[in-house]
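Hey, quick one: can you model this chain's 3D structure?
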Amino acid sequence: MIQEINIALRNLNRQKKRSFLLAGAIAFGIMIVTLINGFSGSFVENVNENFSHLMAGHIFIEGVEKTTTGRNYYFISDDKILIDTIESLDLPLQFITKRSEFSGNLVYNGKTLQQNIVGADWSKENYFSERMMILDGSFDNMSEPQAIILSKEVADRLSLGIGDRMLVRMKTYTGQQNLGEFVLAAIIADPGLIGSMSAYANLDYVNQLLNLQTGEYKIMGLYLSSMKPIDTAADTLYKALEGKVQLFTRDSDDEETNFVEAMMQQGKEEEWEGLRYRLYTLNDILSEVQDLVNVLDTASLVILLVLFVIIMVGITNTFRMVMLERVREIGTIRALGVQKKGVLRLFLFEALFVGLLGFTAGLASAGIIMAVLHQINWGMDTPIFILLKNGHMTFKLLPWQVIMNLLVVTALTLLAAWSPARKAANLEPAHALRVQN
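Sure thing. Here's the predicted structure for all 437 residues.
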């Protein structure tokens, strides 16, 4: 077999141009698929990490009170039981955040713009401010109780400058109309796909506008030291809270309904008295992101198969030409005692080495492209910011994906060469030697 391998390598070296063209076609297919796999591998991690910063947590708890008229009010009134339970558990917890938010209309100089406004405790959320790109103003201005941070897009549309005051029309948590006033403290770069999704204000003032009492707020967030144990930590906390407070179940009976829709439906259909708490995670909210990654992985496999169906035709035709060119050579080695299986293996080894060469070149090319793309700083205001990590593209290629791609390449390359290789092996030595080149 060693001799057959050496002959196969020598034959490939004799036809360098043909060998490199075949290997190049394979390399192109592998490069495209590897780039897709690498991007999808880091897609979920980057989206989760960015959203965890924007939403201030990995695990969330919100309170829901149902009135006698069937309306739901969302707030947490007394979090002592929640805090005590959290602190009693050995969770990989970095800190706890408290937030409230509402959607209202900002009004300035005759212009009106609807905006979601999030109230945060800036004395405890320094990590969040570090991820914002300040274009004008300063976070120091947030010491003003009515201060607000807007994206550049919103500030431009309302023609606002630092220090300008604007009105806000909104509803309290019970649905009454209310009017407030904000002063622009800072302008930040639009964070890509979610550029105008939220503005940021002080928690106390947002609670005041919502007509929440002292100590009340809407959502508690638990920020963990790592995203890996999110589901495990959430299950542990849920079990610890059972029996202490009223809880919504975490499972949705309808797998076709996304989590947010199921969550809203759950609040409408069920009946209870007092406050009932809902515990959910970042993974629950972004579950459809994983579905998208699965689609990308499936698409990459389909692309690989389609490319290789095309490449297989080229490989098959090439090896048919090789067989015709080497008829006398095949006859000679058969006359010297090489069996049919030896000739078959000789051609299959050539195909295998072409496939491995193409696979290696494609993998290396994808690695170089990923390294170059990773070095580019796309900025914090790019439309794809939510897909990036600190403004940089990242790629994560899983070992099983590399192995699967290698197996697919190997199998399809050998399959493409099988028919001409078998015909070459079945040539009669005497007939082959009589053929004129």
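One thing worth noting: Residues 2-50+288-434 form one domain.
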